Structures are given as C-alpha cells and as structure tokens.
Amino acid sequence: MKKTVIVAILLLILFYVFYDVIALSLEDFILQHKDAFWAPAALYKLAGMSMFILKYDIALSSYSKAVDTFPLYSLSDEALYKIALIYERQHRWKDAVSCYRKFIAKYPKHEWAPEADEKIEKIEGIYLQ
Questions:
Q1: Contact 23/53 with Cβ under 8 angstroms?
Q2: Which residues have C-beta within 8 Å of that of residue 128, sequence separation ≥ 6?
C-alpha cells in the first residue's frame, strides 16, 4: 500500500513538473487538427484543466487560442470570462478590466455580465486609481 501511494505521488509530481511541455504539445496538436469535430472541446478542456491546476499561463494561452480559433463554440463566452479571471489572478488589472469589458460588450445578457461589471468596479476602485 505504501509503495503504491509513493508511486502515485511521484507520478503526480512528474506530471505537474512536465505539464507545460505536455500541454503546449497537446495545444499544438489540437490546433493542427482544428477542423476535427473534437478540436474545440479538446482545447477548452485543456484550458480548463490548466486553470484547475493553477497553470495560468498555459490556461491563458489555450483559452485565448480557443476564443480566436473557435469563436462560435458554445463555451466561448465562458472562455472569455475565464481569461479575465486569469488576468485578475495574475494582478494584470488593466488586462482584466479590458477583458471583462469585452465580455460584457459581447455577451450583455449573459448571467455572468453583472458579476463582470462588479469586478470592473472593484478593480478600478481598488487597483487602478
């Protein structure tokens, strides 16, 4: 049992250490096959997983490429919002505000639009005075 746990932990550590290389290779592969039916979902999943494990630079890259490459995909709205969240977590305040504004302009009736507006007010009130 102990050996299994140790091996599992070591594998997770290796995965995390080499995640950037793996993720960027996957991103390139997906974009090379952007006409495939599975490509939009795969790129959004990669971005989501990267964000989940706090690899924000990879998530930002994947979400940005997803929005640019697949703007009509059903999760484009969510991706644009998450790009703004990443900017916010990286303390890139001007980029976050700009992206939240873009989100509101593009999806004014989205359920997250009021929250995006509140975030803009908060960021401008605290960090961009």
A1: no
A2: 93, 94, 97
Inter-residue contact 116 to 84 (CB < 8 Å): yes
CA distance from start to end of the chain: 56
Distance CA 22, CA 115 (A): 34
CA distance 29 to 48: 17
* Domain architecture of the chain: domains with CATH: 2-126 (1.25.40.10)
The predicted model scores a pTM of 0.88
pLDDT along the chain (129 residues), means of 10: 88 90 95 96 96 95 96 94 97 97 96 97 89
